[in-house]
Design brief:
The chain is α+β, with helices and mostly antiparallel strands and 326 residues long. The protein contains ten helices and nine strands. It has a five-stranded antiparallel sheet with strand order 2-1-9-8-7, sandwiched between helices. A two-stranded antiparallel ribbon has the order 3-6. The longest helix has 36 residues. It is elongated and about 105 Å long. About 11% of the residues have low confidence.
C-alpha cells in the first residue's frame, strides 16, 4: 500500500512538472511565431515579461543595449524618491529650517518640472547633482540595474542606451517596494500617452513610461490585468515601433487572461492623459490631508483663549468685590 501511495505521489509530481513546462512552452511558442512573422531579431527587438504573482518570465535579447529615450527618467527618480524616504534630505538638527534644493529648486519643484512638464534641462540638473555622467550611470546600475559593470558598453555611457534586463530590474524594484515608489508611479500616471504599451486594446489600467530615440521605441510598464504583470519592450521603427510594442503587450495580456480564466468584457481606446497640476503628488511618502486636524487645533486654541478671558474677568470681579468690602 505504501509503495502504491509513493508511486501515485511521484506521478502527481511529474504530471505537475509537465503541466508547468507545457505552459511555459506555450508562451515561448507564441513568441517564437510572433518573432518569425514580424522579422524580428537581436538588432531590432528586445522584450522581457515578468509576472510577480506566478514568477513566470519570458526574455528575448534582454542583455542588448538599445536606445531607450526618456525611460532613463525612471531610475533617476527612483534614486531621489528612495533617498528622500530614507531621510537623506532631512534637515540637520543644527539647521531645522534647511530645505534640500537642486539648482535653486526643491525636490517637489524638480519633480513637477521633470515629470509633469517634461523639462529635460531639469532632469539633467538632477542627474548632474549626483556626480559626473559616468558616476551617475555606475551608481544607478549598482543600485537598480544590476548589470555586470565590466560588461557595460560604451553606448550605455555615451549613447543613452539601456538593456531590457536593466529596466526590468528597475520595474521589479518599483513593484516590490510600493512604500517607496508608490507616489512616484502615481506621478508618472499623470503623464500617460495612448501609444506604445497603452495601445494594446485592453481595458486594464496600466502605468507606462515611453521613450523614443534614434529610430527606436522603448516602453516599460506595469499592467493591471487579471494578474498584474511587468513588461519592457524595445522595437525599431523599421519593424513597427509603437504599433509593434502594442501588439506585443496584447499578446502577453491575452496569455495572462487565458492562464487566469478571466477575460475582459470590452476594450476601450486609450488617449493621452491631460496633465493636471492638482493631481501631482509632491512627496515621496504617503501624504495626508491634515486640514481637519488643523481646523480642530485652531478651534481648540480659540476656545482656550475664550475660557482664559472668562476666568480672568471672574478673578478681576472677585478682587474688585473684595476691595469694595474692605
Amino acid at each position: 500500500m505504501k509503495k502504491l501511495l509513493c508511486l501515485l505521489l511521484c506521478l502527481c509530481l511529474l504530471s505537475g512538472g509537465v503541466v508547468s513546462a507545457a505552459e511555459g512552452g506555450e508562451l515561448a511558442a507564441r513568441m517564437d511565431d510572433f518573432i518569425d512573422e514580424n522579422n524580428l531579431d537581436g538588432d531590432n527587438f528586445a522584450v522581457i515579461y515578468y509576472n510577480p504573482s506566478t514568477k513566470e518570465e519570458y526574455t528575448y535579447n534582454e542583455t542588448a543595449f538599445l536606445p531607450a529615450g526618456e525611460t532613463w527618467l525612471l531610475p533617476l527618480h527612483m534614486y531621489y524618491y528612495e533617498q528622500e524616504t530614507d531621510g537623506a534630505f532631512d534637515p540637520p538638527r543644527e539647521d531645522p529650517l534647511f530645505v534640500y534644493t537642486i539648482g535653486g529648486m526643491t525636490l517637489e519643484e524638480c519633480r513637477y518640472h521633470s515629470i509633469l512638464l517634461g523639462e529635460n534641462d531639469v532632469s539633467l540638473q538632477m542627474r548632474d547633482n549626483l556626480g559626473t555622467r559616468e558616476q551617475y550611470l555606475l551608481l544607478i546600475n549598482k543600485t537598480y540595474g544590476h548589470c555586470d559593470p565590466d560588461r557595460l558598453p560604451d553606448s550605455y555611457f555615451s549613447g543613452g542606451c539601456y538593456s531590457a534586463e536593466f529596466l526590468m530590474n528597475c520595474m521589479r524594484t518599483v513593484s516590490e517596494r510600493p512604500e517607496k515608489f508608490g507616489n512616484m508611479m502615481k506621478n508618472f500616471s499623470m503623464v500617460q500617452t495612448g501609444d506604445g504599451l497603452a495601445a494594446y486594446g485592453y481595458p486594464y489600467n496600466l502605468v507606462h513610461i515611453r521613450g523614443a530615440q534614434d529610430g527606436f521605441v522603448c516602453d516599460l510598464g506595469e499592467i493591471s490585468g487579471p494578474t498584474t504583470y511587468l513588461l519592457v519592450c524595445f522595437a525599431s521603427e523599421d519593424v513597427g515601433g509603437d504599433e509593434l510594442v502594442a501588439r506585443v503587450n496584447a499578446l502577453f495580456c491575452s496569455y495572462v487572461e487565458e492562464q487566469s480564466g478571466i477575460v475582459a468584457e470590452s476594450t476601450v481606446p486609450r488617449t493621452d492623459r491631460e496633465r493636471n497640476d492638482t493631481d501631482f503628488i509632491v512627496g515621496s511618502v504617503g501624504t495626508q490631508d491634515n486640514s481637519d486636524v488643523l481646523r480642530w487645533i485652531a478651534v481648540s486654541l480659540g476656545a482656550l483663549a475664550a475660557l482664559a478671558l472668562v476666568v480672568g474677568v471672574i478673578v478681576w470681579l472677585l478682587h474688585r468685590r473684595k476691595d469694595d468690602r474692605i
